[in-house]
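step: validate -> pass
step: tokenize input -> pass
step: predict -> running
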Amino acid sequence: MTPPARGDHEARRRDVSEAVWRVLAERGFGGLTLRAVAAELGASTGLLTHYFPSKRALVAHALEVLDRQAAERRRPATEAAGAARGLVALRAALLDVLPLDEEGDAGNRIRVGSWDAALGDAELTAGHAERYRRARRGMAELCAEAQELGELPASRPADDLAAGAQSFVLGLVVQALFAPGEFPPERQRALLDGFLADLAAGRE
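step: predict -> pass
step: emit ->
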């Protein structure tokens, strides 16, 4: 790998991003080092520091790569729901967070693994907080829609309903990652449906 010409910089940065993702997928955040990414690229660590002068810069970029992967990945439940609104759309969005297949499992393992790195750095913590805040805003819009349709009680703010739904599904993600035998996909779906039924009945 030779130093990139100016016109090649963005292409080379994409190569680096892809190498970062491969290292994350294989080793998780604990194995994300400049040396590991350089080896994946077939480059020297010295050349890699042209892009990332420190481990912290590499971690920050890895979180950006995670965001892109999340934005680009298929969302089977949401696609299946099509133009559905309200509670059906909320259920689909929550299903697509869960580790229900290999892709969902791998993505969630990487994201959960990133929490430790982010919690040790105020700026990275703020970035994670904003990511979850954006997700809650989207869920709150779906909750408000469901309230308008009479599917969810209007007595609670949509923001609170969304915060509860996000907290439930993230907790279920953690349970499923640590005990996949106890939380197979069919049980995850059943638990989510039970949560939403309670939410609709005003029991949550």
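step: describe -> The radius of gyration is 20 Å.
step: cleanup -> pass
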